[in-house]
Amino acid sequence: MKNKLLLLLFLATGIVGFAQNDNAQKKKASEFNIPVEYYKLNNGLKVILSQDKSSPTVIVAAYYNIGFRIEPKDRTGFAHLFEHMMFQGSKNLGKMEFIKLVQENGGVLNGSTRFDFTNYFEIVPSNKLETMLWAEADRMKGLDITQDNLTNQQGVVKNEVKVNVLNQPYGGFPWLDMPQYANTNWYNAHNF
């Protein structure tokens, strides 16, 4: 009988402790808040700012409202091509210098083209925020579009599509195949 009372007391203590812990977690979860501020600049550029000072890094991300779904019939690939062209130089940064600038400052970067948008991001130490904003603005306003860069990147994009989309022996990316089968409207029925 004594063992049963001890077991009952032990279980009751555990339940009370669990309930108190659960209430503390609920309170903490209700206090979780991600601050987000929205701005629209005079030139139409939308800025979303969300400060998090838990890490001494900053992420700069640029999203363009163009993806492969928005391209004209029989003229696809432009969004993906210009995703690549954004790394081929600009007014103040030469070919591949944008990548070099990010990496030499301890950062990482990438870009991608999706159905409805093309995006670029850089993650760098927070003291490099102004540098990254300058570099993004530089390539926004002045890409170095030369015939050599264009020809080179056309070949790169064609090869990427061949390797990553068309030549998948074991299924590949089903979400890329779905639009053709799920839609009859051309703008929704192509995958790259």
Describe this structure in words.
By secondary structure, the chain is an alpha+beta fold. It has a domain at about 35-165: Metalloenzyme, LuxS/M16 peptidase-like (Cytochrome Bc1 Complex, Chain A, domain 1, 2-Layer Sandwich), CATH 3.30.830.10. Helices cover about 45% and strands about 15% of the residues. The chain has helices at about 1-30, 80-85, 95-105, 130-140, 145-165, 175-180, and strands at about 35-40, 45-50, 55-65, 110-115, 120-125. The strands form 2 sheets. The protein has a 3-stranded antiparallel sheet with strand order 3-5-4, with helices on one face. The chain has a two-stranded antiparallel sheet with strand order 1-2. Helix 2 (about 80-85) crosses helix 5 (about 145-165). It is globular and about 60 Å long. Residues about 5-10 have low confidence and may be disordered.
Number of helices: 6
**Into which percentage range does the β-strand content fall?**
15-25%
Average of per-residue pLDDT values:
82
Global morphology: globular
Write the CATH architecture name of the domain at 37-167.
2-Layer Sandwich
- Biggest sheet character: 3 strands, antiparallel
By CATH reckoning, the class of the domain at 37-167 would read Alpha Beta
State the end-to-end distance: 73 Å
| CATH fold label of the domain at 37-167 | Cytochrome Bc1 Complex, Chain A, domain 1
CATH superfamily of the domain at 37-167: Metalloenzyme, LuxS/M16 peptidase-like
**H/E topology pattern:** HEEEHHEEHHH
Multimeric state: single chain
Report the structural category.
alpha+beta
Please estimate the helix content. 40-55%
Q: How much is the radius of gyration in Å?
A: 25 Å
Q: Please give the order of strands in the largest beta sheet.
A: 3-5-4
**How many runs of DSSP E, i.e. beta strands?**
5
Low-pLDDT stretches are 5-9
